[in-house]
Structures are given as structure tokens and as C-alpha cells.
Amino acid sequence: MSNKKSIRGAKQTSIIHKKIIHRKAPKQTRSIERFQKILEIAFQTIDEIGYENTTTDIIAERCEISVGSLYQFFPNKETIIYTKAEALYLELHELFFRKIKLLTQKYKRYSERLIQEILIAFEDTLSEVKGYSILHSILYTHPSLLALDQLSNERFAKSLAKELLMPLYPRVTKSKALLVARITVESVDAVYRSLVRSGEHSRRQKSKIMGELAIFLNAYFKTLT
């Protein structure tokens, strides 16, 4: 029975990922500009009329190109969204760890203020990466996006262990630092997701929730000292 389930699951995964077909990125300037425009217009369209209503026909029309020209770059809507999502996650990672590098130069050891500044840096990064809020709103429309989101969290955890935890706690083993980083990333991600889903939170309520998250992280990080 378990073998049948695993085979069925493998087939379903295969069907899911057949929709995401990666093609080589263009190299000529004009093609690169068109490629990027399609990605930007697709997300703008989703923001305006929703994921389900967005089609390749509409995206092509808004880009002022034919559907055939769009298909030269992307075979379907899912691939457009996935490609843009990949870029957003990489931008998020790069921007956040640029901020982390500055914080590690400022703080040579653990402090409660450091935790607060890390959370502020993360919140600022989310607001600075244009299109991330749109990506979050459509995350559950396609299994490949969820898989990409998990991959992003794993990348964040590895970088957090390397760039922050191991320099702060030189006696902590690499495996322990990675475990702590993984729990930290998943915890912070879960809290931020709940805040985004519950749009009715006031600024004061959000501040209280973030304050509680800081208390939680401080208590956790103190166990490493």
C-alpha cells in the first residue's frame, strides 16, 4: 500500500513540475528587456485582477507583444510566475544578508538589541523587495511555488548559521548553528505569515507581536551563550 502511495505521489509531482519548464535566459539587450518586462507585467496584472484571471493572453497584450513572442520566453503562466519568484527570493536573500553583514560589524557579540535589529532588518527587507507581497498572496496556487519557498528558507538558514550564529558563538558546532538557524527562520517566517494573513492587526498589535517574537528569540539565543 505504501509503495502505491509513493508511486502515485511521484506521478503527481512529475505532473506538477512538467508545467514549470525552464528556458535559457536571453542574452541580447532587447530580449533581456522584453523578458524582464513580461515578469514585471505578470505580477502587476496578478496584483490588479488576481492570479486566476491572469492569462498569457492578457500578459502579452499588456506587454504590447504577441502571445507567440511571449511563448518564445515562457511556455505558460506558471513558468512566468516561478521565474519571477526565483528572482524575488534571491533578491530578498541578498538584501537581508547585506544588512546582517552590517550588524555583525556593529555587534561583535550577542545582545538583545541585536535581535531587535535583526527583526527590523527582516521587516525592512520584506517591504523593500517589490513584488514580494504579491508572491506571498499567490504562494498556495501552485505546489512548485511552495517548494521554492521552502528552498528559500533552507538557503536563509544556511546563511544565517554561517554569517551570524557561528561568528557570534564560535564554540557552537556547525550542525548546532544550522539547527538553531533553521528553527529561527521557520519561527520568524510563521509569525510574519500570520501577520500578513491577518490584515486586521493594528500597528500597535503588530508591534506587540513582534515584541513577543523578540523575547522568544532572545530566550532561545541565550541558551547558546
What do these coordinates show?
This protein is elongated. It is mostly helical and 225 residues long. The chain has a domain at 84-222. Mean pLDDT is 87; it is low at 1-17. The protein is 77% helix and 0% strand. Helix 5 (77-106) runs antiparallel to helix 6, helix 5 (77-106) runs parallel beside helix 8 (143-168) and helix 8 (143-168) crosses helix 9 (174-197). It holds the Pfam family TetR_N.
Short description:
The protein is mainly α and 225 residues long.
Going by helix content, strand content and strand pairing, the class is: mainly alpha
The percentage of residues in β strands lies in under 5%
How is the main sheet built? none
What is the 3D shape? elongated
| Number of strand elements | 0
Percentage of residues assigned to helices: over 70%
SSE inventory with pairings:
Layout: H1 2-18, H2 29-49, H3 56-63, H4 67-71, H5 77-106, H6 112-128, H7 132-137, H8 143-168, H9 174-197, H10 203-222
Helix pairs in contact: 2-3, 2-5, 5-6, 5-8, 6-10, 8-9, 9-10
